[in-house]
Amino acid sequence: MKVYAKIAAIGAMVLGLAACSSGPKEILIGGVGPVTGAAATFGVSTKNAYEMAIAEWNAKGGVLGKQIKLDFADDKGDPTEGATVYTKLIQQDKVVAIVGTVMSKVSLAGAPICQAAGIPMISPTSTNPKVTQVGDYIFRACFIDPFQGTVGAQFSYNTLNAKKAGVLFDNGNDYDKGLAEYFQAEYTKLGGTVVDYEGYSTGATDFKAQLTKIVAQKPDVLYSPNYYQDDALIAKQARELGFKGPIVGGDGWDSPDLVKIGGSAVENCYFTNHYSKDDTRPIVQDFVKKYQAKYGEVPDALAALGYDAMNIMLDAIKRAGKTDGASIRDALKATDLAVVSGQVKFDANRDPIKSAVVIAIQNGQQVYKTTVNP
Ligand code: PHE
After folding, report:
1. Is residue 128 part of a domain?
2. For residue 84, how far is the Cα from the chain centroid?
3. How far is 42 from 35, CA to CA, in rounded Å?
4. Is 80 exceeded by the pLDDT of residue 19?
5. pTM
6. How many domains does the chain have?
7. Whether the CB of 103 sits within 6 Å of ligand 1
8. Residue-number span of the structural domain to which 26 is assigned
9. Which of 44, 126, 145, 275 to mutate to test the pocket of ligand 1 (most atoms within 8 A of CB)?
């Protein structure tokens, strides 16, 4: 009896070792996005896109002969929650890499955790420059805000012929604050005047005090570089206060909820973005068709970039030939891949150089206006 038990124990150990040396059957990838909270549509699109990209790779045999498994976590759009889920994915679940997250302020909480653990991270959509400055394990799939703010300023000044601008932004959000600054710098350089520059606190829903001051200065354009819930309310309240001019924003406007909340107030509004569903390149149209078939809606930029970021990560793991952090990081650095939002090659800061599009809201629909190259 004792002998048998010993043999059984040794047998189990040998099996265990064998299982260890061949490694787990799947490659576990962490995915992060805000599927609840103040920017929930961002997370829903992002998660859909991660899943779609992984399903496509798995159908073709996975990566390095293994299936890919998504370990998704909701950061709720909150930096503290973000730090908690990044730590859990790395320490407890032992993901090999993280694709995420969406909002710059939350990526700024997750990035130091990835960097310290030597786990490669690619944010699909965080545009604030500070995100990739955290370290050499941190990448992004999108352009950065110094460029996006410049495009917004040039479009306002040159195309809309607006010579006076008011700016209203969330003071507690790295993304909003950064974009407001980059807009102001370029707009002033072009010869425009920022007649009023106003901040508000995160979570505000009444912007009338700031808007009253701005409207009194008679700006030709209002720049609102915030997330869609705030932007829609700002548009409504600005219209109520009599402002009829164009309102311009950034990628944070991209949500099906923008028009639902803003209604007719978001007509005569424009925003800079990463992709347009109307782009005729086959890679874009193919993606739009597949996404629509799977989820029943037109993919927004969050979906496009979530899909791109996951594809960039899996392409890097395939080229790395192994799944340790340093090998994946080195392969990521060497990326040269055609994705939905353009051709991705990283500069020395691990930021891709990509073009932006300007989208107008017309009759409640997003209408492509122009593409701006860096
Ligand atoms: N760029 C935003 C940020 O950095 C996130 C975002 C991207 C939101 C694209 C909408 C669309 O916080």
Report:
1. yes
2. 19
3. 7
4. no
5. 0.93
6. 2
7. yes
8. 22-142+280-355
9. 126
